[in-house]
């Protein structure tokens, strides 16, 4: 039965955390534990010494030894001070390592997850789990180590001194202790649910802050300030209330213990002056030693009585952290995954059906080939599934049925690194890191020389505006490029994609923020730079794709038409309709395109 309980504890969150932490930081904790033992022994020793200190002052026979006793006191307190220092430093060091290690682990785990993980898990929740969870892990170990080693041993030592000095009076301690513990047990019940509510409200505070920062223009333009303030107020008040609840629970333990300690001291005074039947009258030093031990026992006893509340508090954060660490990775590399074998870069979707999170298919039984070295354009109504096709080609998602292949190799059988090396991409939402323009460009090709970076920027028509910025390529772009215009950000994203020199280039509305002139210049540059590259372009502005080798019309997850411009115009179908809508004024008939 003991073995079963042990196994259950070991596999529980607390057991795992303790096991992992001691395994990783055993040396630091070992030193801290030795120092704690020294603290406990010297604390008990200092209570015991009170007998000799007081007797040296009150009894003439011991007065001659006063200097020896004084030296003993100095040594004792010196050892205690050194041990306390070592204990604090090593405990903090081990704790800081645990926080760092847990955060590192969580972040690595997050990056191994597929894209879908990030659409189902809010960033505020991930932030809470990573920061508070790791801190809670550290606090839990601190509480356990200081509680079970320093406080428990100190208490045992002091109770030992009390029993040694005054066995009969010590009985009082054993009456008072359990009463206090019973009181604390009563408090524990609600701690966990209060903490869970507090964490949820903290996540809401982070969420409101993130949305305020990202959506400040929407908030201003639609005058949503009051609404945001209300949301924030509600979350803040919830956290405040929960924090008050927790501190109330934690605070009840102290006055309870304080009152009981006062009762005990008063009792000692009354009983000792009355004299105890059948026992020798104790010396003033013995009584003082006993009272000192009793009073000193108050602190560790108080901490021990609070320990359960603290453990419960920390366990909520630890559980959140482990929940995150234990989640199955959403996009796995096959154990037999091999490097994508070099080929011309032909992309093929074979009978692909796909729905996000297993829901209604957004791509249905699609068969399509994107010819190597050619430019294919995807057009069609919004929400038809064009960007989803890019997600499948980059293996952000796996199809529910069918396969996606590059040069005849199923993407599920190749490793991520070689697949991603093959592809360059510009998305609808241009994302820039909060660093310099140079770093943002070079991140797609870390080994590129300055010259290559500048050439790519020139091709994307970004060089001139970059040179006009105060610090040129070293200009910081701010959070997600806030210091740049939409078109400037897009040109940097295009330059970044060009610099990668991949064999497949996916452009999802990549030039939508550019004016007509810049767009045509960028297009020309792309045409020359992507001569043997397989390019797939998604564009709503048909003018961007008229020269593509092939145009595919996607509607409701299926391909409704495909061919070159002439063929599609002759068909008089969906593409012709789209074309007429966009070029009505200028090109109302098929002849214009012909
Ligand atoms: N991460 C996601 N989770 C769930 N559904 C999604 C997700 N992304 C897209 N969808 C849904 O999939 C469908 C296809 O979206 P997709 O972005 O592929 O269309 P699109 O043709 O690229 O549209 P647009 O031209 O507007 O960019 C839409 O109905 C959309 O609501």
UniProtKB/TrEMBL annotation:
ABC transporter domain span: 347-581
Molecular function terms from GO: ATP binding
SMART domains given in the database record: AAA
Membrane-related topology note: Multi-pass membrane protein
Keywords in alphabetical order: ATP-binding, Membrane, Nucleotide-binding, Transmembrane, Transmembrane helix
Compartment(s) where it occurs, according to its Swiss-Prot or TrEMBL record: Cell membrane
Transmembrane segments: 28-50, 62-83, 139-162, 168-188, 256-277
InterPro entries: AAA+_ATPase, ABC1_TM_dom, ABC1_TM_sf, ABC_transporter-like_ATP-bd, ABC_transporter-like_CS, P-loop_NTPase, Type_1_exporter
Domain ABC transmembrane type-1 residues, every copy: 31-313
Domain of life of the organism encoding this protein: Bacteria
Keyword DNA-binding found: no
Designated name of the protein: ATP-binding cassette domain-containing protein
